[in-house]
Amino acid sequence: MTTQAPPPSPEGYESISLKDALEERYLAYALSTIMHRALPDVRDGLKPVHRRLLFAMRQLKLDPASGFKKCARVVGDVIGKYHPHGDQSVYDALVRLAQDFAVRYPLVEGQGNFGNIDGDNAAAMRYTESRLTEVAQALLEGISEDTVDFRETYDGEDSEPVVLPGAFPNLLANGASGIAVGMATSIPPHNAHELCDAALHLIKYPNATVAKLVEYVPGPDLPTGGIIVDGRDAITEAYRTGRGGFRVRATWEREDLGRGTWQIVVTEMPYQVQKGKLVEKIAELMQARKLPLLGDVRDESAEDVRLVLEPKSRTVDPVVLMESLFKMSDLETRISLNMNVLAEGRMPGVLSLRDVLRQWLDHRKVVLVRRTEYRLGKIANRLEVLGGYIIAFLNLDEVIRIIREEDHPKQDLMRTFELTDTQAEAILNMRLRSLRKLEEMELRREHENLIAERGELRALLASEEAQWAMIAGEIRKTRKTFSKDTDLGRRRTAFADAPEVEVDLEQAMIEKEPITVVCSEKGWIRAMKGHMADTSGLAFKEGDRSRFEFFAHTTDKLLALVSSGKFYTFNADRLPGGRGHGEPLRLMADMENTDDIVALFVHEAGRKILLASSDGNGFVVAESDVVATTRKGRQVLNVKAPVEAQTCAHVPEGADHVAVVGENRKLLIFPFAELPEMTRGKGVRLQRYKDGGLSDAKAFVLADGLTWQDSSARTWTVTDLKEWLGLRAQAGRLPPKGFPRNNRFGPEAEG
Length: 751
Fold this sequence. Notes:
Blueprint: H1 18-38, H2 48-59, E1 69-70, H3 71-82, H4 87-98, E2 108-111, E3 129-132, H5 134-140, E4 150-152, E5 159-161, H6 170-174, E6 176-179, E7 184-187, H7 192-204, H8 210-216, E8 227-228, H9 232-241, E9 243-249, E10 251-258, E11 261-268, H10 275-287, E12 294-299, E13 307-311, H11 318-328, E14 332-338, E15 340-343, E16 347-350, H12 353-394, H13 396-405, H14 409-417, H15 421-428, H16 437-462, H17 464-481, E17 494-495, H18 505-508, E18 514-520, E19 524-529, E20 546-553, E21 557-562, E22 566-571, E23 583-584, E24 597-602, E25 608-613, E26 617-622, E27 634-635, E28 645-650, E29 657-662, E30 667-671, E31 684-685, E32 694-700, E33 706-709, E34 715-718
Parallel strand pairs: 8-17
Antiparallel strand pairs: 1-3, 2-3, 4-5, 6-7, 8-9, 9-14, 10-11, 11-13, 12-13, 15-16, 18-19, 18-20, 19-23, 21-22, 21-24, 22-27, 25-26, 25-28, 26-31, 29-30, 29-32, 33-34
């Protein structure tokens, strides 16, 4: 295969590769987007459009103390002199600087409709008016004192600042967001008081770590409030690397309506979540039946946010309801942190919290030095003029003669009194009213004051320590202006730990009602409404009678131990009703026909259970470890026929001994510490038998004595138990007088 050479270029033209041309032009576009549009400068925290807006408003003298001007006038000046872009994009940037729900410390004070948190747009620029705020004034402070560099505007007819002096930590205080080419930035707002504290600490301790600075800046402070639910370690790591995120939740409270009814009221929204769209989204989720716990949502907001959420049922747990909403809607959002900024206005990079504060402080030092040098230049010029004035007053008659009679008075004055051009020009421009006797004294006083000030400024330039002391004083002044004691400076975003709640919507929908659970000896179970004090009137099948009776609620889980050592779990709300004889429990789970029910009780997390088999082996298990998640149950006590599970007894708080009684009517008491805690197994030998097996076991507190019930339901307690104390796996001795003939401690051991 042969390739033809490209045709020769016409005379006066140069051939270049299309690939090279595209790369060069795209790189130029990318750099333009990064440098002049999308990324903020670390020094003043502003993008070019925002910087030009503030500078144009300053040129229009829209100070906080002055009147408002139409936004159309401001936008016209910006796009005409400094920012050759569309008027709508510039106006949108101006509007955002005035929205107190979008910017933590607004730079523009608006008059008119500037939009709202529902997502409504601002009015057209011809209807709205604006002026600068105190925060913007702080950013612009000293701009006329040669504190920053200026460059030509796009048409070369004017000049604009490269960066603002920035006496306010704007980058972190107001945050920034933007998407450039191949990179982006996202910085949430922070509290100015906390930023000033961190900056002062960094001045005092230049090697301070990010972990120490986070003690002063614990996290973002969002204009719309909310609650941050991230841990301190995650926040510190985000500030250390400059990348991360924060989980922010809406602030809510439970409002009682009387008679057991209530509703949720959301008072603060997550940052940058439009309330109107959020309400629409929640309504869509309700229509799709993805929020079964929520009955209704309505917006009752006026000036303050008030979003009302009504539960489906008053028995719903408010925390569970809100956790389901946090999971499904924007009532919880994640705000990203990507501190990708222009370092020194030139190089884009991701900075840590310490680096951002450090570069802002370095910029403040440059501003201080340049402002001081500018003032020294002004003093030098004024001292030169004052020197000429003093000479003129000392030789007033001769000066007047030269001015009246000579053809070239300026040159004659310079030659006669050895004046500079500046001094001679100042004398010629002096007003007649200044030729009074007191003026000479005022000139000498001003001369002395300027010399003293010059000495102080030179000392300031010569001492870096004095410069940092001056900067620290300026930061303290800023901290006082935007203190947390002020309405603008108070912290709005709180911190909290998210509750560890597993949202089981199906379980949460169950209405909590009292029931009485009744299970017969043959395993027929039913749930009677309410807590019945007397169940003697209940009917059973022929040859059957009641075995387990206890109170519960429809939201409870029931645990059943069968003779094969398996545990089964049942939901109380799914038990058959009280009419008839109920249903066989074995049909509600995959039980074997040979399984008999050993114990049936309400599950209570945190308790422990003493399990024992008929051959005298046993152990302790946490109740949460026996809960079965399937119909097949969970094997906990390992037994082989003919051995069966015999005992299931709850361990009381502070139990220190175990009582075991065998079929041979021998009682043994040994320390509870000799019994292992396991999740599954055969266990260890509790008592030794020559023939027969275990009859019952019980854990108890020795100081309280051993308790049992006789056949007449009378309670017996014996405290002197020295005769039966021993070690695990011993034979034991005959029980005390009055011990039941069935060799069991009582019905409480079963349920």
